[in-house]
Write a structure and sequence with these properties.
With about 220 residues, the chain is mostly helical. It is about 80% helix and about 0% strand. It has helices at about 5-45, 50-60, 65-80, 85-110, 115-120, 125-155, 170-180, 185-215. The longest helix is centred in the first third of the chain and has 38 residues, at about 5-45.
């Protein structure tokens, strides 16, 4: 048993929390880029795109994130590609995030009245211009609150990366617990740090939702 003070525990957890934040941002930004590409492909109705995106969403929403992390970390090794825990976690969480964001955004685009598309077509705008200048500005107002709210799920989802050896907040808590034999104290600190990360995001999402609803009245 290693003698850790409370400050030692908190300091080490704060250091690990940096990687939780970094992984969350990579997954959220990367997932947003992939999700937007899938949204455009599905909205444009390219041949086979709707079927592909629907299958993609069902695959990543219908399987546990834990299994996706295992496949990303151990599956590539079967084909001779050695990958780090950092890379595997980033890829798995990015794909997982994109599958949810594309559905959130698809619903927001569908909420834009059909007449807006027709009005854009009457102005002789091509599909890209219709999205950029007419549809997406309106859909983004609806999408902001649920998108920010989903970031909370991404932050909490990073905890599963600990199973493949990625040293983030949960993994650091487990390592400190093994050294101190003080699980209640350590995991209480871990829980408080997750709360400190997630609560401001949840609060901001609710504030945005109220503000947008007030503006639409």
């Amino acid at each position: 048993m290693v003698d850790f003070t409370l400050w030692d525990i908190v300091r080490n957890l704060l250091l690990a929390a940096r990687w939780t934040v970094a992984l969350s941002l990579i997954a959220f930004i990367g997932g947003g880029i992939v999700g937007m590409a899938l949204l455009v492909a599905r909205t444009a109705r390219w041949p086979g795109a709707e079927t592909f995106v629907a299958g993609y969403v069902q695959l990543f929403q219908g399987t546990p994130l834990l299994m996706q992390l295992f496949l990303a970390y151990f599956g590539l090794a079967l084909f001779g590609y050695e990958t780090s825990a950092w890379t595997a976690a980033s890829v798995a969480l990015t794909l997982y995030t994109s599958a949810f964001l594309v559905e959130i955004w698809r619903g927001c685009v569908a909420a834009v009245p059909k007449g807006q598309w027709e009005a854009a077509q009457s102005l002789a705008l091509n599909f890209g211009e219709q999205l950029r200048y007419v549809v997406l500005p309106q859909a983004s107002r609806i999408a902001i609150a649920p998108t920010v709210g989903f970031l909370v799920q991404v932050i909490k989802g990073t905890a599963l990366a600990s199973v493949i050896g990625f040293v983030e907040l949960t993994k650091a808590g487990t390592m400190i617990t093994n050294a101190t034999f003080a699980p209640f104290l350590v995991y209480s600190c871990v829980a408080l740090m997750y709360f400190a990360l997630c609560f401001p995001v949840s609060l901001y999402a609710r504030t945005l939702e109220r503000k947008l609803n007030a503006n639409n009245r």
